[in-house]
């Protein structure tokens, strides 16, 4: 199988380019004052829309595979303290934002936002509605664990304005879930989806993970089948990222026995084939969307974009103002990350109103490079003249900033993964499977960093 050969050949650790530069470049020379300055600067820069992200760093139970910024919820009192800090932070940040701009995206993630009493979420949503104006087509989304989701919750969330939901399924096989300490869905997923649709949710996504203990290509195919039969609009098959040096809980999974790299690759390929056969279009490496989904249309028009909250279109994205512990704001020329520990975040917000711990301010060259990397990663295409025009510089300067050297791409060209065009570079469908390895050759920072910091693609 040609796809398998390509992945085996290029499956090297490398950045996922969820941001450029990747988050391991952020440092603590960036602080609150920088963030405040950057918010004010962002008011007159593009994108002109606003995207808000709210992080809820708690889960009632911790899955051993989890790589998210979350912690075990030990006391209900902490939730009230956390939300009081979150509301204070919103007030502080909102006072610096030009709120004549429209919100096009709100995303709640975690942790498990739907595991806290929903009146806390409602309080924040009321505060946001009072302080900001919404685009009529705003996307309001929450990542939910179906273990804690009821039909009443769905109706309540719809009343608050939510119109998209991502359900963390991971696997339908309860033995797999037991092995990773995850509580199964409270209700059958097809019933939840039916309720979501009748409550007016227009976008439903399912998350799956492959590479967990007890998973095999055969039983993972059953999970994928069940996921497709539930007819979500989008689906993600995450490769289990095993980074025990970051998350010590993951060592438990080593003892249970992880699938071999060959089996893991087969799970990825089987899922991909099944999804494509059923009419889902691949978005990037491991995301899939229905043919009529706005992401699929945006990919066709080379208008796809990505921020820390996932894929979106270039029209929909705003500058991202993020609230809560560990959350990362993405402004036009900077990233600002909050303190990671929820207890410390609460204390610092109560004292100072801001909790920026580290970040990164991009140089002009890095802004240009980010644009090139984003185009390649999202749309598999870059036109250097267009980028030059956008930044009002010469094409030769763009080529110089990304250290463009056609010689670096010989292997990819010989394997039919990319084409060098007069105006730039085009990644073919097969090449999108190893797109981050391609993008690394346009990243002047990639050469200097230890590869050990990243997990493999698959
Ligand atoms: C914040 S969780 C989603 C909401 C909720 N907490 C849940 O688990 O259903 C975000 C997603 O990250 C993915 N994820 C978590 N840890 C991962 C890991 N180590 N490797 C790959 N994907 C992971 C899971 O698919 C999960 O659904
Ligand atoms: S995967 Fe979701 S539910 Fe499980 S620990 Fe991570 S954030 Fe919590």
Structural account:
The chain contains 17 helices and 19 strands. With 458 residues, the chain is α/β, with parallel strands linked by helices. The protein folds into two domains: 20-361, tm_1862 like domain (pyruvate-formate lyase- activating enzyme, Alpha-Beta Horseshoe), CATH 3.80.30; 364-445, Orthogonal Bundle (Arc Repressor Mutant, subunit A), CATH 1.10.10. The strands form five sheets. Strands 9-10-8-7-6-5-4-1-13 form a nine-stranded mixed β-sheet, sandwiched between helices. Strands 14-15-16 form a three-stranded antiparallel β-sheet, with helices on one face. Helix 4 (118-131) runs parallel beside helix 5, helix 8 runs parallel beside helix 10 (261-277) and helix 14 packs across helix 15 (395-401).
Small-molecule components bound:
S-adenosylmethionine, iron/sulfur cluster
Give the overall shape: globular
Low-confidence stretches: none
* SS content category: alpha/beta
CATH topology of the largest domain: pyruvate-formate lyase- activating enzyme
Largest sheet: 9 strands, mixed
Rounded to the nearest angstrom, the distance between the terminal CA atoms is: 16 Å
For the CA atoms, what is the radius of gyration?
21 Å
Query: Could you name the CATH homologous superfamily of the largest domain?
Result: tm_1862 like domain
| Oligomeric state as shown | single chain
Q: What strand order characterises the main sheet?
A: 9-10-8-7-6-5-4-1-13
Strand content: 15-25%
The residue-averaged pLDDT reads 94
Number of domains: 2
How many helices?
17
**Which CATH architecture of the largest domain would you pick?**
Alpha-Beta Horseshoe
């Amino acid at each position: 199988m040609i796809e398998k050969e390509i992945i085996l050949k290029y499956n090297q650790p490398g950045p996922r380019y969820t941001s450029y530069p990747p988050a391991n470049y952020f440092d603590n020379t960036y602080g609150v004052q920088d963030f405040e300055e950057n918010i004010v600067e962002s008011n007159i820069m593009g994108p002109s829309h606003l995207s808000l992200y709210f992080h809820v760093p708690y889960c009632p139970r911790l899955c051993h595979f989890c790589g998210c910024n979350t912690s075990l919820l030990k006391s209900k009192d902490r939730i009230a303290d956390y939300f009081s800090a979150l509301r204070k932070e919103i007030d502080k940040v909102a006072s610096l934002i030009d709120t004549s701009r429209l919100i096009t995206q709100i995303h709640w993630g975690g942790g498990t936002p739907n595991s806290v009493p929903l009146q806390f979420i409602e309080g924040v949503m009321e505060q946001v509605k009072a302080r900001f104006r919404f685009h009529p087509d705003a996307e309001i989304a929450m990542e939910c664990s179906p273990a804690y989701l009821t039909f009443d919750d769905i109706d309540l969330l719809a009343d608050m304005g939510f119109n998209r939901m991502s359900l963390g399924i991971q696997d339908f096989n309860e033995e797999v879930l037991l092995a990773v300490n995850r509580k199964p869905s409270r209700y059958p997923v097809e019933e939840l989806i039916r309720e979501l649709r009748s409550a007016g949710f227009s976008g439903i996504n399912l998350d799956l993970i492959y590479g967990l203990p007890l998973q095999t290509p055969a039983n993972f195919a059953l999970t994928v089948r069940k996921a497709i039969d539930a007819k979500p609009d989008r689906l993600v098959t995450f490769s289990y990222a095993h980074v025990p040096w970051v998350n010590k809980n993951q060592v438990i999974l080593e003892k249970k026995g992880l699938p071999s790299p060959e089996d893991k690759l087969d799970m990825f390929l089987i899922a991909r084939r099944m999804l494509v056969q059923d009419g889902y279009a691949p978005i990037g490496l491991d995301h899939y969307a229905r043919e009529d989904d706005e992401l699929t249309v945006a990919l066709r028009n080379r208008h796809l974009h990505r921020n820390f909250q996932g894929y979106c279109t270039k029209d929909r994205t705003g500058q991202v103002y993020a609230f809560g512990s560990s959350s990362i704001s993405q402004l036009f020329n900077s990233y600002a990350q909050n303190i990671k520990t929820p207890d410390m975040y609460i204390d610092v917000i109560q004292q100072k109103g801001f909790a920026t711990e580290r970040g990164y301010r991009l140089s002009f060259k890095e802004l240009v490079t980010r644009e090139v990397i984003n185009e390649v990663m999202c749309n598999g295409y870059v036109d250097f003249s267009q980028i030059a025009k956008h930044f009002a510089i010469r094409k030769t300067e763009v080529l110089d900033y990304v250290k463009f050297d056609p010689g670096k791409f010989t292997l990819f060209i010989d394997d039919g993964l990319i084409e060098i065009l007069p105006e730039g570079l085009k990644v073919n469908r097969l090449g999108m499977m190893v797109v981050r390895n391609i993008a690394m050759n346009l990243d002047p920072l990639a050469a200097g960093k230890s590869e050990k910091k990243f997990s493999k693609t698959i």
